[in-house]
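Spend some time on this chain, tokens included, and walk me through the fold:

. . .
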Amino acid sequence: MLDADELVALALQATRRGDTRAALAQLERALERDPRHGPARHLRAGLWAGMQRFDLAIPEMERAVALEADPAPARFELGMMLLSNGRIDEARKAWQPLEALGEEHALFLFQRGMLSMVADRFDETIADLERGIARNQANPSLNREMQKVVERVRRARAS
């Protein structure tokens, strides 16, 4: 019988193949074995967010934040989900603990840039997101997403 970590690994493989249904099934099995498995909850929340099921994704990411050994990445994603749903004050509150990472940490810079964006401070947005991208070695896919935001802000500012 596979343990929760092995099932999460299978879910990640399914995700890379684009098989969301299989990934969710593996995560369900993982959480049956270990309901407090933070990475399984984190990945499941991300998959639900990708399906625009924020009603499921946000509470699941909140659980992941509480369970993860390093909650900062889950906390950042939670804030992004809240922000993308217009829940700016809740995003700000979710991100507040990221301040403890320090002003040079990528996640701190990303959250500050996103909050600058919703306040229409576009120069600050671009500066913080680009600094965060330069400092983020751990998550290339997050860098790609933040680069897309930079490009959208530049286009919007130009028009």
Notes: Residues 132 and 146 are 9 Å apart (CA to CA). The chain has nine helices and no strands.
